[in-house]
Description:
Blueprint: H1 3-22, H2 30-46, H3 52-74, H4 94-117
Helix pairs in contact: 1-2, 1-4, 2-3, 2-4, 3-4
Amino acid sequence: MKISIRWSRILVIAGLILMVIGAMDPLEGSVVILAGSLVAALGAFFGKIRRWKLLVGAFVLIAVGVGVMFAMSARGGIGGSTGRSMGWLLIILPYPAGWIMGLTGAILSLKEFSKARG
Length: 118
């Protein structure tokens, strides 16, 4: 296994671990999940994995969802006395969709690394 492939695989594994750890607290861990998705996307890109675009797309979705979530938090949140209904939660859907996409892409990338190795 080439050194660059080894490091790429390590990056994808580290990104996957960060995305799972960040899920323990989706609000506070959102930055960890965002960083993990970026690390996994970089690992797949540098490892020349076919699914690197899937991981980049997941990173973009997570970044948009986290950005909207932070913006809504800065404006007082959703529900309660804010005057915004719980329906506003739909605008953060890119965050969980990107997280699922990132986990799937990272796992599929690791499978591709193992096929290339053996």
